[in-house]
Design a protein that fits this description.
four-stranded antiparallel beta sheet; 10 strands; 3-hydroxy-3-methylglutaryl-coenzyme A Reductase, Chain A, domain 2; binds NADPH dihydro-nicotinamide-adenine-dinucleotide phosphate; 436 residues; Alpha-Beta Plaits; alpha+beta; 16 helices; Helicase, Ruva Protein, domain 3
Length: 436
């Protein structure tokens, strides 16, 4: 059995940026050269930003930080996150530390197969068209691969097709459709552009074979063949919090998981908590978070009802056992990953994991985030911790600058009703006291 690579970063939040970089060097997450070259705004050069989108005016920044103490498949990681919401990094780090002491996260990823679609309409004979398309699978695959030969040279490319018939739907007035799926290995890339090139290239052939008309050819962001699963377990004793015993916390987390399985109103908020962790890493690593969001929520509704993406149960020995699965079609190349300074730094800080490993890290971050939210919710509630961190945002919104931010934030934590008006009052009083 591989030895567990546990590397805790203690009191990281109390250090200044220099101290944080030193801690990362000492624990082996960053080398000295990279730390020396670290540019702490990770900003895009203006000419690059201008080339990335249309009508560009400026760049829009978000804080970039690290969720600490992750142990994923016995390897230690710091997990980069880009996010505007306070408490996400603290919650992920505290859960990760707790689980690291009990074996960390174990993960499994399916082969990274992506799906492209050609949507066909006006098909004269659907059954005949399905038979012809299936018979000509090899020709369809070859045509697709010829459109993007470099991915084949790398060992990937299209390798199978599937055909789905969708009946006419009287209620919505939708006609029948025949949908051709092309299964494509995109290796280290998420593959949207690779797939879209292939799908558009096979349209004439698919139209000819089916006798139908193609409405479009494009990837599906519902990447059901590119799933990542994280599991974790923890003894009930380790869950005690405040006046709650470990068994009570475990049982209440399991109940909360069940509520999120059966009630869509709860499930959406439950899954939002999971996506707090996932989106932040997806964004930090330069990946397409809209694609991940869309796919995750479709997967949550795969039974016909929107449900929790995660599941928490009681193990045979009484442990709390957590599991999270979702589609994670991310890449380590492509898009802006190779040139966005934030994305480059994120991959560097994780030791340049390959795409499968990055999926493992991201799904673990989602499960950690989910655990922290659930544990707080079923015990003291999330507001105590959340508002403590939110107090700094309120102080900034009230106009506090420099050392005023900490002063106003600390005083805000002492009041019963923490809000913007109170923050403004505290700031005003503080400034007046200094001018007296
Ligand atoms: P790119 O178009 O940048 O393509 C990635 C390229 O990287 C490949 O074509 C390949 O080019 C090269 N490459 C180098 N090494 C590897 C490797 N080991 N494995 C695979 N490819 C490698 O990115 P994607 O095709 O991944 O598309 C992602 C982008 O598309 C994102 O920016 C996304 O936002 C955007 N997008 C998303 C859509 C969506 O619906 N989600 C729709 C349209 C665009 P080569 O082999 O030629 O060197």
């Amino acid at each position: 059995m591989r030895e567990k690579d546990i590397r805790y970063l203690e009191k990281f939040y109390q250090k200044n940026k220099k101290g944080r970089l030193e801690a990362l060097i000492q624990s082996g997450f960053l080398d000295e050269e990279k730390a020396a070259a670290f540019n702490d705004d990770l900003a895009l050069a203006p000419e690059i930003a201008d080339s990335m989108i249309e009508n560009q005016l400026a760049t829009y920044q978000l804080p970039f930080g690290l969720a600490l103490n992750f142990l994923v498949d016995d390897v230690a990681y710091v997990v980069p996150m880009a996010v505007e919401e306070p408490s996400v990094l603290a919650a992920a780090s505290s859960a990760a530390k707790l689980f690291a002491a009990h074996g960390g996260f174990q993960t499994a990823v399916t082969p990274r197969t992506m799906i492209g679609q050609v949507i066909l309409t006006e098909i004269p004979d659907c059954q005949k068209a399905i038979a012809v398309l299936e018979d000509e699978e090899i020709e369809i695959i070859q045509t697709a691969n010829q459109a993007h030969p470099s991915i084949v040279k790398r060992g990937g490319g299209a390798d199978a097709i599937g055909v789905r018939h969708i009946e006419a739907d009287v209620a919505s007035g939708s006609p029948e459709f025949l949908i051709l799926h092309l299964y494509i290995e995109t290796l280290e890339a998420m593959g949207a552009n690779i797939i879209n090139t292939m799908m558009e290239a096979i349209i004439p052939l698919v139209e000819e074979l089916s006798g139908g008309k193609a409405l479009m050819g494009i990837l599906s962001n519902y990447a059901t063949e590119c799933l990542a699963t994280a599991t974790c377990r923890i003894p009930a004793d380790a869950l005690a919090k405040g006046n709650w015993s470990g068994e009570e916390v475990r049982d209440r987390i399991i109940l909360a998981s069940q509520a999120a399985t059966v009630d869509p109103y709860r499930a959406v908020t439950h899954n939002k908590g999971i996506m707090n962790g996932i989106d932040a890493v997806v964004l930090a690593t330069g990946n397409d978070w809209r694609a991940i969001e869309a796919g995750a929520h479709a997967y949550a509704a795969r039974s016909g009802q929107y449900r929790s993406l995660s599941k928490w149960t009681k193990g045979d020995n009484g442990d709390l056992v957590g599991e999270l699965t979702l589609p994670l079609p991310i890449g380590t190349v492509g898009g802006s990953i190779s040139f966005h300074p934030g994305a480059k730094m994120a991959h560097e800080l994780m030791g340049h994991p390959d795409a499968e490993t990055l999926e493992s890290i991201i799904v673990s971050a989602g499960l950690a985030q989910n655990f922290s939210a659930m544990r707080a919710l079923v015990t003291e509630g999330i507001q105590r911790g959340h508002m403590g961190l939110h107090s700094r945002s309120l102080a900034i919104s009230a106009g506090a600058i420099g050392e005023e931010i900490a002063i106003v934030s600390e005083q805000l934590k002492q009041v019963k009703n923490m809000n913007l008006a109170t923050a403004q009052e505290i700031l005003e009083k503080h400034r007046n006291s200094r001018t007296l």
